[in-house]
Amino acid sequence: MTIDLGLKDKVAIVTGAGGGIGRAIAVEMARAGAKIVINDIGVSLGGEGGSASPAEETRAMIEAAGGEAAINTDSVADWDSAQKIVQCAMDSFGRLDAVVNNAGILRDAIFHKMDPADWKSVIDVHLNGSFYVSRAAAPLFREQHGGAFVHMTSTSGLIGNVGQANYSAAKLGIAALSKSIALDMKRYNVRSNCIAPFAWSRMTSSIPANTPEEKARVEKLQRMTPETNAPLAVFLASEAAREVTGQIFAARLNELFLFNQPRPVRSAHADGGWTPEMIAERALPAFRAGFQPVDVSGDVFAWDPM
């Protein structure tokens, strides 16, 4: 049975589409029939510089395959610029049906050495950028009573990672933002979901590879190309996912995952309330078996991708 994704002549914005996962998603989305707004400011991994060349390369790939694409080089990290990104879709194609919030930078540092400027820069691009672009598209989606948001979260936020307090906080915040959008815009037939991608790209090239264990992990990651994440993003933006919203998925080579979301796992009750001493004596022993280990993403996804 062939499933119609319903993407022919639909319009999608893909931020950070000048390379890596964003480029793979944009190309795959175009292959499914969508017209693409390629948003990319062409900066370095840390957010410095700027060039339209990466976006132009993506457009050339899409057009070579018979697709249509427009380029936008406005920053997602600015409210007014986000409006221009959405307006680019309207000016170029006259409509907007999906937004893929993929743009990102890295400024990794151990927490107690992290510069506040590096904290703010990462939050601005990832979390604020996802809000700004989504919020700019929201009135259109509300008016047409339909639309899809696909946001990039990360296991660095969902599980944890060393030296990425800014990135982890932003990515977990994106998961909460997506859930809020799903709740607030459900009445308008607007969907919002997250993907935690696994891929070797600029965003993962800074992962340490000093110890034998770290080197082994990097070797596994290098097998996971950006293209392995694209089908999930295209599905979530399509009509085939019209009943899917408020969820968190991951794609790792040939594996797909559905993540759970925080819910109470244990409870304790005391007539008349608690004192600190009572918590130590009664609640702590009851809760201890339910504590989550302080692990990192690599501890949880410890088996080789197949």
DSSP strand tally: 8
Strand arrangement within the widest β-sheet reads 3-2-1-4-5-6-7-8
Radius of gyration, taken over Cα atoms and rounded to an integer in Å: 20 Å
Separation, N- and C-terminal Cα atoms = 26 Å
Corresponding CATH superfamily: NAD(P)-binding Rossmann-like Domain
Instruction: Domain count, please report it.
Output: 1
Would you tell me the overall average pLDDT? 93
CATH-defined topology: Rossmann fold
Tally of individual helices: 10
Largest sheet: 8 strands, mixed
Protein name: KR domain-containing protein
Organism: Paracoccus methylarcula
Pfam family, one: adh_short
Family: Belongs to the short-chain dehydrogenases/reductases (SDR) family.
Q: Helices and strands in order, then pairings?
A:
Blueprint: E1 11-15, H1 20-31, E2 35-39, H2 53-64, E3 69-72, H3 79-93, E4 98-101, H4 116-144, E5 147-152, H5 155-158, H6 165-185, E6 190-197, H7 212-222, H8 230-237, E7 248-252, E8 255-258, H9 276-288, H10 297-300
Parallel strand pairs: 1-2, 1-4, 2-3, 4-5, 5-6, 6-7
Antiparallel strand pairs: 7-8
